[in-house]
Design a protein that fits this description.
605 residues; mainly beta; Immunoglobulin-like; eight-stranded mixed beta sheet; five-stranded antiparallel beta sheet; 10 helices; 37 strands
Amino acid sequence: MGATRLYFLLFSLYSAHASSLRKLNDIDNLKNADYGNSPPHHGLQLLFWFAQKVLDVDENNSLMLDSNFDPHRGDFGFQLYENREGVLPSLSSLRQSYYSVGNLSYPAANALPSYVRRYYKNTNVPERNMDRLIVSVDENRPNRMFKVFITTQNQGKNDFNPSETYEIDSALILLIRHTLDCKLHEKPNKIYYTYKISQYTEDMEDERCSQFLKQIGYNSIDCIPIIHRKKRSLNSKCNTFEGIKLVIKATKQGSAKLTWKMPADIMRKKRYVNVHIDTWQNSHSSDRNKKFTLYDFSGDLETSVSLNAGLQPRLQLFNSFGKLVTWYGPEFDGANRVIPTRIKGFDASLQLHTVDGKACARLYIKKTFSNWKDVLYYSWVGFYKSSQHEHNDYFTYQYAVNFEEVQGHNTKKYEIYQYKSNMAIAPGVQIRLLMKKNYNNILAHTSSWEDDKEMTISPSKICKSIPGHKPELPLPWSEPEYFYGPEFYDANKEFPTAISDFDASLQLFTEDGKACAKLYIKNTFCEWEDAFYYSWVGFYKSSEDGNGDYSTYQYAVKFEKIEAKSTKDYDIYQYKSKLVIAPGVQIRFLLDKYSDKVLAKTKPW
C-alpha cells in the first residue's frame, strides 16, 4: 500500500511539472521568459535554426519539415529522448516519440549552422552545451512535429530543469521563420492568396539570426575574456570575436578552400594574425596540417589539405598582453550539412559525402528493409560532375550491392553503406540512384555540392489577413503549393492528397455529375510514367469497400494531360469515369497490378 502511494505521489509530481510548463505564443512571451539570453547559451539560436527548417503547417496545426528529414537517422544530431524524469507531458499515442537536438558534442551536430555552434569550441564553461530543443514526432511520419519545447540541462546533471522548460506554440515558430510577402489577388467570385519568399544564403541567415537575438535581448557583450590574476594568464571564458567568418569549402581538386573575413579593428589591434587548419580529434586537438599567415581582412585561399569530416580552421591572435588567443571556426561536415535524400518507394536514403577529398555515396537502409540487396540488385549510383549532365554521362558508378557497410555509424533503425569513388569532390558534383541498367528510372538524386539553388516553401499562417477581406476558403496547408482557385469548388473543397514517396498528388472532383480523378505531377518528376507504369486509380462507391471492390478503374499513364490547367511547377492529368458522384465516393491510387499497396486515397465525398 505504501509503495502504491509513493508511486502515485511521484506520478503526481511529474504530472504537475509537465502540466505547469509555460507555453510561449509570441515574441514578447519568448523575450520575457529570459531563456538563455546571453553567451555561451545556444538555445535561442537552435530555436531560430529549427524555425527555418519548418516548411508547412498541416490542418492539425502540426509543423511539417522536409520529407527527407528523419530524426531516427540522427539528422543534425537528433537523439531519442525518453522523458524518464517526466519533465514533459506524457505522449498521447504510442506512435509518438520525443527527440532532442542541440547536444553539440555529437559528430552529427556538425551539420548545424555555425551560428548555433559559435560558442561551443570558443568557451570552456558548462553553459556552452546545456540547451536543447525537443520535439514530439509521429513515428510513421517523422517529418511531422506535434509539439516543440526548449529546455536547459541542470548543471552537472543529465536531466532538464522544469523551470527553464517551455512549450513553443507553432504560431511563434512561424513568426521566427522567413517572413512571407502575402498579397491578395481577386478575380470575379474568387479570392485567393499567393506569396513569395526570397532565398537566403548562409551569411544572410546568420545575419537574420543576429537580428532575432538582438530583438529577444541576447547580450553578446557579456562574453568577455577573464584574466586570472594569480596565474597572470588569459583564460577566455567566452571568446567570440564577433564578425569573424572562417569557413572551409571545396576546391575543384577536392582539397580545402579557406574563406575568411575579419573586422578591420581586429587586424589593427592585434600585433599579427595567422590562421591554421587542424584535423579535428577532440576539443583541444593540436595536430595541425597546414599553417597560413594572413595579411588581408578577407579572402579565399586554396590549400592542399584534403577535405574530411571534422576539418577545422583556427584563427590565432596575439592580444595586447602578448598572449595567444585562439578562435575556433566551425568543423567541416562530411556531407556539407545536407541530410540524405529519400529513395522513392523504398525505406532507404541517398547522401553525397566526402572522404579524403573524394566524392562518396552513402546509402541509409532501414533495418526493416532486410531484402534490400535483392530488390536493389541491379540498382547503381552514378557520380556526375554537374546536375546538368545526362544520366548516361556519369564520371563513374557503382552497384548498390557492392557498397561496404560503415561500422560504428549505424543507428538503431538504420544501417549505413558507403562507396568511395575516385572523383574529386567539387562544387556542382551530384550523385543519382538509378533502378536498373537503363537510364530512364531514377529513384533519387542529391542536390549539387555547395548548391545555392532557390528553395520552395509552401504557404504558412505567418501570412496576415488583408483588412476588409476574408477568403472564402482556408489557406492550403498541404503540398503542393499550387492549389488555388476553382479546383477547390469542383473538388468539394478538399485539397489533393499526397502520393506517398513521390512528387505527385491525387484529387477527387466532379464533372457533369461523374466522379473524376486528377493527378498533379511535379515537373521535376520527369520519369513518372516509368515509375507509375503499372499504377492505377480505383473508383469506389464507399470507403468501406475493399481495394479489389472498385466500381471502375484506370491506369495512371492513360490519364489525359490538361494543358490549360497545368502550372509552372506541376503538370495536371485527368480521368473522367462513368461512376456517378455521390456521398461516400472515394478514389485510391495503387502502385501496381495488385490491390495491397495503396499509396494514396482521398476522403469520401
